[in-house]
Amino acid sequence: MKKIYFLLLLSIIISCKDDKPKIIPAAKKAVPTIILTDERKVSIDTAKINSFKSETLKQFYNSSGNKTVWGNLKKRTYILSLLKNSEALGLNPDDYKSSKLEQLEKRIASLKDVDLATYDILLTYNFELYLTHLYKGKLDPKKLYTDWDLEEKKFDVNDALIKAFNNNKLDSIAENIQPKSAPYKELIKALEIINTFPDDSIGTIKSDTKITLKDTSSALINIKKTLLFWKDMSGKSDSLTKIYDEKTFEAVKKFQERHGLAADGVIGAGTISALNYSKERRKQQIIANLERWRWYTNDFSENYFIINIPDYSLNVVEMQDTTLVRNVVVGTSKRKTPIITSVLKSVVFNPTWTVPPTILKEDVVPAMKRNRNYLAKKNITIYDTAGKVVDPKAWNENKPGNYRYVQSPGYNNSLGVMKILFPNHHSVYLHDTNHRNYFGRSNRSLSSGCVRVENPLELAEHILDDSENYSKEKIDTIVASKKTMYTKITKKYALYQWYWTAWSKKNQLIFRADIYNLDSDLYAKLRD
Question: Where along the chain is the active site annotated (predicted)?
Fold first, then answer.
């Protein structure tokens, strides 16, 4: 009997042990070994490596047995050249101790072992810092902004560096890790172009009134000098007049087009503001944009929507081909459109619109206090917490948050007749609008955060790509029904809702107004 009890107890203990999950330690990714050559090598004191407080640096020198690795003159020369010329990529050579490293290089033959070890560590540390900045930027957008939803870019700098080192391919590493997107390459080109311009010393242009063709204004002297400087106009600056002639008119239109302004030749406040940007300020703008592009993903989806917020544009790109371009309206500087990378999920025809808290507080409540029929005129119904309709006369203006405010579907709905949904933390989406005249404006920073799209039904037909169920005629019938209908988007489209204010095109500099005032502040932080 005792044997039976013993066996029973043993089986229980074994079964309990089996039920417990086995803890398997996380496997550390093996760092490849550095292949050292026969050049001068010295041992490095680990305390010196540890003083940099960099886990990456410790792992790097573990791979070399804590010996110096940069004995090869060709490899050192290449690194020093990259760091010295990092300004051509919008980076700051001072961030990588470029001058100090060059001084050490000049004295390398006479360096004692301990100084050679220090030089070796400094080369590695600063080169890895350079590569990291080149891959994912110097700053973290999540620490700068609350409305930038970008996934952090992971970068194994040791893996990239050691593989390039061992395979003698250091000369391609910097090129390989940079973004491959066309706007990034156009920005690098823009920086190259602007560096060809001389320093400018044109005075500030002041004009309180609009200047039109044939007008006479003293401001036109500096306007013409600026147009000559930026090569929007040809000629010499020693015979300029105060008359707004035809030649200047055409040059102004060219300048306006490059800056996303209405190319009508009328010199108003927007044009004056753009003309008053100095070369240095434009260069800083380009550098700020390069930093932003390094925050964005390098791996574009096969099909995607890309929205450039300051350009008020949406491009549909499929298999590397732009298939549709649309004008958009974006958020104001007070109610910014957030920066998002997401995936399109569904199209909603005839959407209802629930008034969001910000618009309720800032727009609806003040209007309702003035006129209780305000919401009824906009076809918006008030519901209480039980879902019952509330008469506007019975609405409690002291507790506006106790209600839901829902606008019925229709052509005049605030979302228009269609919206496109995608996962995000900001409750924003793409949609039609009842203010369709806004798309004709040059400044389209007018929404409450969502992106309004011009001719959205054509966009829906294109992305649903179903001639049987969602032809133009079928979509028109759905819209005419005024019934809300959700349709899943079966083709996978990524959404990139991003922000850039500078690039180049056909060797011309292109700029857009920095509608959210991000450029100057970002540049200042980059040079801190």
Answer: 431 (proton donor/acceptor), 450 (nucleophile)
Crossing angle of helices 157-166 and 55-62, rounded to 10°: 30
Using CB atoms within 10 A of its CB, is residue 379 exposed (0-12), middle (13-18) or buried (19+)?
middle
Beta bridge mates, 75: none
| Helix, strand or coil, per DSSP, at residue 497 | strand
Q: Which contiguous run of DSSP H or E holds residue 293?
A: helix 279-295
Dump pLDDT digits (tens) for 119-133: 999 999 999 999 999
The whole-model pTM stands at 0.89
pLDDT at 13 over 60: no
What's the token pair of residue 258? Answer: 């490059």
Which sequence spans correspond to the domains of the chain? Answer: 46-178, 353-407
As annotated, the active-site residues are 431, 450
Helix (H, G, I), strand (E, B) or coil at 140: coil
In sign, the C-alpha dihedral spanning 450, 452, 457, 463 is negative
Going by C-alpha positions, the residue among 254, 257, 307, 262 that lies closest to residue 442 is: 262
Query: CA-CA distances (angstroms) from residue 427 to 155, 190, 420, 445, 448?
Result: 30, 35, 12, 18, 11
Please name the helix (run of DSSP H) or strand (run of DSSP E) that holds residue 175, with its range, or none: helix 170-177
Q: How open is the CA angle 401-406-412, to the nearest 5 degrees? A: 135
pLDDT tens-digit map of 389-438: 999 999 999 999 999 999 999 999 999 999 999 999 999 999 999 999 99
